[in-house]
Write a structure and sequence with these properties.
CATH class: Alpha Beta
Number of helices: 9
Oligomer: single chain
Distance between the termini: 36 Å
Strand content: 15-25%
Radius of gyration: 17 Å
Number of domains: 1
CATH architecture: Alpha-Beta Complex
Order of helices and strands: EHEHEHEHEHHEHHEH
CATH superfamily: Spore Coat Polysaccharide Biosynthesis Protein SpsA, Chain A
Shape: globular
Helix content: 25-40%
Length: 239
């Protein structure tokens, strides 16, 4: 992977419990030339102070928002600092494991591959519905992601298994062509829909996933699913 220079964008909002662990995991990865851009979205739980104390000299660039703007806005703030030829989005929680970078970067050995998504669905055994029913909130999110993926695929004429995965990886040129507009979690459906309109195919690889519950800091809510649908229609038919 010598030809790959990876720029990792890490949006962070109220992740005091995990931000150090995530950065440490990224730093420990070997044989990947990387740049870490950490964006604190005006955290109020002590994350901001922790970053100033522990991480200013451990990452390549730190950006502090004076107001909470959202994940998409954090990604947009990083654009002018990107140096790598490959760009990866990494959430600041521990739901996604940086060890999967090797899987995510492997397809880019083929120069024709432009975008890779890490799928939480590929390679997983199907779990009986009765098991999910015990944990209703988790089951509801799984069903919601499945439904959104199906709708997105239908509208965008794609065949993805996990459109709302955090792990989205792009060649720099295609990433900048997207001209991101959305400031919140709508970044995800915006990007997927714009890639469809550019006729850019998306390669998926299986990744590990350790999903959190709301009580643990999970920020996605039902309203975000509704906003995602609106975003798909907006960028498909009106932009």
């Amino acid at each position: 992977m010598n030809k790959i220079y990876l720029s990792i964008i890490v949006p962070c909002f109220n992740e005091k419990k995990t931000i150090l662990k995530v950065i440490n995991q990224i730093k420990r990865l070997k044989n990947i030339k990387k740049q870490i851009i950490l964006v604190d979205d005006n955290s109020s739980d002590g994350s901001k102070e922790l970053i100033k104390k522990k991480l200013l000299k451990r990452v390549d660039k730190v950006i502090f928002h004076k107001k909470n703007k959202g994940k998409g806005a954090a990604i947009k703030s990083s654009l002018k600092f990107i140096k790598g030829n490959i760009v990866l989005i990494q959430d600041a929680d521990l739901e996604y494991n940086p060890k999967d970078y090797y899987k995510l970067l492997e397809p880019f050995k083929n120069k024709n591959i432009k975008v890779v998504y890490g799928s939480r669905v590929l390679g997983r055994k199907k779990i009986p519905f009765s098991s999910h029913f015990i944990h209703f909130s988790k089951s509801f999110r799984i069903f919601g992601n499945y439904t959104l993926t199906k709708i997105s695929n239908y509208i965008n004429k794609q065949s993805l298994t996990d459109v709302h995965t955090c792990y989205k990886v792009f060649r720099k040129d295609i990433f900048f062509k997207l001209k991101i507009k959305e400031k919140d979690f709508s970044f995800c459906p915006e990007v997927t829909t714009k890639l469809s309109k550019l006729s850019c195919s998306i390669t998926e690889v299986p990744i590990s996933y350790n999903g959190r519950e709301i009580k643990d800091g999970k920020k996605i809510r039902f309203k975000d699913a509704i906003i995602a649908l609106i975003t798909i229609y907006k960028y498909k038919y009106f932009y």
